[in-house]
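At this stage, I needed to go through a protein sequence along with its fold in token form, as given directly below:
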Amino acid sequence: MSDNNIIEHMFTNKITIGVTGLSRAGKTVFIGSLAQALLTADAWSERRGQGPLSQFGPFERRVFQCARIRDDIHSHLPQFPFRSVRNNLTGQDTKWPEPTEGISRLVLDLDYRSRKHKWVKTDRHVQIELVDYPGEWLVDLPMLRQTFKEWSDDLLRLANNDQRRELSSRYLNKLKEIDPDQAFDAEVTGSLSELWTEYLHKAAANGLTRNQPGRLLRPDTMRHSPILRLAPLPDTLQDSKLGKGMENRFEEYKKKVIKPFYRDHFKNMDRQIVLMDVLRILELGEPAFNEMAETLREILASFHYGKGGMLSWLGGAKTTHVLFAATKADHVTRGDRANLELMLRRMLTLVDEYNNLRSKTSEYKVMDLASVRATEDRMTVKSPKREILYGMPENETSYGQWDPGALPLDMPPNWSQVDYKFFRFAPLPMPNARYEGFPAINLGKALDFLIGDDFQ
């Protein structure tokens, strides 16, 4: 390392930020929008309090100067496709980018001028590494404390409930065809895992979230690996050769898939943001809501950083800040955005009634968020005037005004009285986004919570 690099390293504060969320929560759009906001911050230098970085303290105080993407760091590892995401949202035919599948990274150097001493200004750097990883992998964590029998009984009971029975029927019927003397071989395990994976994808598409093993949904580099030929078995098969082989594979999956992810990646995050698509769960109704609550209750064990938490059991963690964000805040009217945040806050309270998360995390926050605004706020012309949204739902062909209704204030909601309609808005044309960043709601506020105190 050269002398200049040594000096630069001394004045660089390195922060790893984990970005996660279940399918369609908006991870890809969040990372792309955040990076673009930092890269184009100079466009708003004379318009403080405006733009995507408004409420980001170092920007508002004129401490933050500029950002640069560091493609040379972790160049041998999968990189977050920032330029592709940006181009999808800034091209002539704007469209939401394709979701990422596994772990990817984006490293940015943020230059700022330290004003620690009144008469001395020092150029310093904050280097943030955004680590994008699937929330589906978090759902696997409870498996570490289960036996194969407990896991199988739990998942097959779930597969037989009213919401899942039809989705899992092909797998359940296949189980009935298996001879108790069936050997443990690649053909039968491959057939079972294929049908189980098909069922998990159907469940996820219907907004159901307790889907294990998570790697069957998001295999990343393990696609087609024998270790993923894993599926639960009923009591009648658990003592067979097939059952014993599947039990060994279950233990192997915990040892070689789940534990390495938490030890090598998750526990090394300095900060975490968890994106939650509360509105989609509200649209899907009570069964999806109840299952999300149970999934969230299990996932929260992943964020118990103190003594006795899952991560301390796995070897500790250094995470200090955890942010839960209710995404798509632009899909509700302006007056309802505080209620969206309140809904998520109350949902977290329901599943963490003993405040384990709050007591074992140094900094904890809940907020509403729209990483890229797909709507504009409007008012009706005729009385009684009310707030509405202007945009284009994905199944429409023109822009117009839309009334999504009001969010319920109770948690859990009175489902018979829910009057909210979820419109899947396509992105608006954003010709200036390449130079000014994307319009957003609370993006700068989220960034300020995650790293605002690190610009000293």
In short: The CA atoms of residues 207 and 284 lie 7 Å apart. The chain has three domains: 3-133+266-374+428-454, 139-263, 376-417.
